[in-house]
Amino acid sequence: MSDKLKNFITRTITGVLFVAVMVVGICFRGDAMILLFALITGLTLWEYTGLVNQIEGVTINRFISTAAGVYLFLAFAGYCANIVPSAAFIPYLLTVVYLFVSELYTKNENAIHDWAYTMLGQMYIALPFSMINVLAFQANPTDGSVGYIWLLPMSIFVFLWVNDTGAYCTGSLLGRHKLFPRISPGKSWEGSIGGGLLVLIVAALIGWYENRTGTGIMSIIEWMGLGLVVVFFGTWGDLVESLFKRTLGIKDSGDILPGHGGMLDRFDSSLMAIPAAVVYIYALSLF
Predict the structure, then answer these.
(1) 185-229: per-residue pLDDT in tens?
(2) Residue 257: beta bridge partners?
(3) Which in 14, 24, 98, 257 has the greatest CB count within 10 A?
(4) What is the Cα–Cα distance from 59 to 108, expressed in whole angstroms?
(5) Half-sphere exposure of 173 toward its Cβ, with a 13 Å CA cutoff?
């Protein structure tokens, strides 16, 4: 068996298992989603901190940075689910203060770099993943009770997967004009447009089905708008991670997912798409 075929089989098996875990974890129950993404947040932060610690002159606390990010996610989950009060965020704020003050005693050669990379991990990874709780837990307008709405967080990943598939297929067949050759030479304008159009179709189908069942979270047009937001910001998220890897001089962020690289490689698009989706949905409620 050739190496190319082995790699294809490995990628396929990993991809199928990954999708299965995501679907079950998100669609089953709210507590399952929380546990799944708390694990994802921790693994991604651990991978990130390991990468930046390879940079000369940078030394950040992997354990505390990872634990802080996971705690932030859990605090958001508890607060959005109406389980804990806003005071649950105080330990996280104290941890951030500690991460700053601790540089006074570590004697690392460049404290500014350490602070910058530490807070980048919190802003780039922990906070975006935490925002999925804002999508997942919605208050009932009639009685104010909070319920778990699995369709919103699941739709973000469905749109990202559909966009990736559509962009790959369209780009392979019709790709001529590079989208961002300096950072990601494999992406084309034709592929991005093809992926976006396919997402619009899927978003319209989700909106039609969701309104037909009577839940009425959003109209069909609003679902299509969410799809476009995910496409644009998901693409930017992919490019941002590509720039991050180019800056570090690496091909993959890790090898935890055979054939697919690391956690950042797998979730790069969602790190921009999730907070953008939150802003979009809140904007709909305002206007």
Answers:
(1) 778 888 889 999 999 999 999 999 888 876 678 999 999 999 999
(2) 261
(3) 257
(4) 7
(5) 9
